[in-house]
Amino acid sequence: MNRLVALDLPGGPAFVDELQRIWADGDAAFPVDQRLPGATKADLCGRMGVDQPIEPGDALVVATSGSTGAPKGVVLTHEAVAASATATSSRLDVTAEDHWLACLPLSHVGGLAVVTRALETGTRLTVVPGFDADEVNASEATLVSLVATMLPRIDPHRFRTIVLGGSRPPADRPSNSVTTYGMTETGSGVVYDGVPLDGVEVRLDDSRQILLRGPMLLRGYRDGTTPLDEQGWLATGDLGRWLDDGRLHVDGRQGDMIITGGENVWPEAVEAALADHPDVAEVMVRGVDDREWGQIVEAVIVPLDDPPSLDSIRAHVKQRHPAFMAPKRIEFVAALPRTSLGKLRRTPRTLPG
Which fold has domain 257-350? Predict the structure, then answer.
């Protein structure tokens, strides 16, 4: 009986060799996050069912980020991995002259997909233990997958194409970048610059929740449950809309929307409005429970130098949006709370008292 094998190695040639050996033996691989302490690694391996049997055709088990709860083990089959590699490589016009650089955490699907994509298509591949700006800038690769927080630290024009995922891209993103939408359950990005990959179906339900279907989606979770309905559709928990040009726009997570005085506020829209405030280095917007308004809009800000005033922040937002979208409260922090792939941990909260 084939089993799930823990792949507990840093990024590098040995990681790739071991992945190929695991597959050659008919087993599936669980890439272990190298940043975790030993006891946490052991606990996670137990949760994922390491050394336990797998179903025929299973290739990978990838842990979800766990940003909204305990991580789940997403099971991806060899067919799903191949479908993702084919669709993404076709959209990116990958040729024999290309060269992938894998520098994101290999325990996350955004980093791991670079490796599996290159292996499936025979594309040249360099895998490094993690993101290092000097190493990325010195790379001879033509293709790289990054998150937005890495862009200011590199020369983006060294690459033919940068695949951006993990969080909302900056407004001034490089012209050679492609934004992706996807999740662990979809085996990496399945919508590029608002356009679904070949073979990927997208629809919106009555609440505007994004539903996805395609050959690269997961078989199920490691615990035997599945998020897919009987027709194979995955309910993402994200809300979106179709733009006039036919592209998909993702508004955000259903639970992230702030309802203040009966008005709906998307945090991303307020964050985008504050991105060019002269005193704001980084900003995250979230809802705070309030007896009068239900919720109020709060801006969590990393200031550039002098912290901006609330009046300044509100005035800046009101240049682009209605007054109800302007923050009523500010919190100053040294760094925004993020997952390891740069996603904001935008948890609504309740003020004491």
Answer: GMP Synthetase; Chain A, domain 3 (3.30.300)
